[in-house]
């Protein structure tokens, strides 16, 4: 599989010289599930937007194989925390419009059938096809967004704290759904998943990168052993998970304390 490389990546907005991301370098393989972990405001979502092509790097680059990311692409699907659904379209048509962009030559009836299959795949009843997003719960909206992303069949899936606003039970159900969907694919998707939840990262990830406070850089990384990946039954009792949870928490706490000290100094 081709490598995905982040090379000396830095970012600041054109009208604001404060650096958000600074000299980030990392490498992982296509097909990996990578969690970007860090406290709120550290630049996790900005990094994801750079992967999506919604922002351009101030310095450095992101490479997928030999290809540099420049602008948006249907090869990279995005699931946002706020679902990213058009409120005036039914949930079925929200998915349909994405499929029509990806498969412009396909017959509409074929794509509508595909939408029904996608809704079923994420556990939504067929009669919800014509419901507007405002009539659905947060969990249902996020299931719709996941169905939309998987329907696009992009090799790279970018997820920006997609379960952050959900209650604990719904969150765990959707975590299990995401795991099962990723495992069922014949061609493994690369997933970049932004979260500030340590347990979520330990449950979902093959590899975790921890971002420090802005100007943000990678302060720690960990790879989950293959035989322990997605093991919710071991998450709170296995020695590896206990050790890594404490290590990750320690890095985050030290980073917070460092930031507070620097703030007091000036």
UniProtKB/TrEMBL annotation:
Domain of life: Bacteria
Gene3D superfamilies from the UniProt entry: P-loop containing nucleotide triphosphate hydrolases
Keyword ATP-binding among UniProt keywords: yes
Record domain ABC transporter: where: 4-238
SMART domains (UniProt xref): AAA
Keyword Nucleotide-binding found: yes
Stored InterPro entries: AAA+_ATPase, ABC_transporter-like_ATP-bd, ABC_transporter_ATP-bind, P-loop_NTPase
Keywords: ATP-binding, Nucleotide-binding, Transport
Example of a GO MF term: ATP hydrolysis activity
The protein, known as: NitT/TauT family transport system ATP-binding protein
Species per Swiss-Prot/TrEMBL record: Oribacterium sinus
């Amino acid at each position: 599989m081709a490598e995905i490389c982040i090379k000396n990546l830095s970012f600041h907005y054109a009208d604001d010289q404060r650096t958000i991301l600074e000299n980030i370098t990392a490498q992982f393989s296509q097909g990996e599930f990578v969690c970007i972990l860090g406290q709120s405001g550290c630049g996790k979502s900005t990094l994801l937007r750079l992967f999506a092509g919604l922002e351009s790097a101030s310095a450095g680059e992101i490479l997928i194989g030999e290809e540099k990311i420049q602008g948006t692409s249907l090869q990279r699907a995005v699931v946002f925390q706020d679902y990213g659904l058009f409120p005036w379209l039914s949930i079925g048509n929200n998915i349909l419009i994405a499929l029509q962009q990806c498969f412009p030559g396909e017959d509409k009836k074929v794509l509508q059938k595909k939408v029904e299959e996608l809704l079923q795949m994420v556990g939504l009843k067929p009669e919800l096809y014509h419901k507007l997003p405002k009539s659905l719960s947060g969990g249902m909206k996020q299931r719709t967004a996941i169905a939309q992303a998987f329907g696009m069949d992009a090799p790279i899936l970018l997820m920006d704290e997609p379960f952050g606003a959900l209650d604990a039970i719904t969150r765990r159900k959707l975590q299990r759904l995401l795991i099962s969907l990723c495992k069922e694919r014949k061609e493994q998707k690369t997933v970049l998943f932004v979260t500030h939840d340590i347990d979520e990262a330990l449950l979902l990830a093959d590899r975790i990168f921890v971002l420090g406070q802005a100007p943000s850089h990678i302060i720690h990384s960990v790879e989950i052993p293959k035989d322990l990946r997605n093991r919710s039954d071991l998450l709170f009792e296995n020695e590896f998970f206990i050790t890594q949870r404490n290590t990750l928490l320690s890095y985050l706490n030290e980073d917070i304390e460092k930031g507070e000290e620097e703030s007091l100094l000036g």
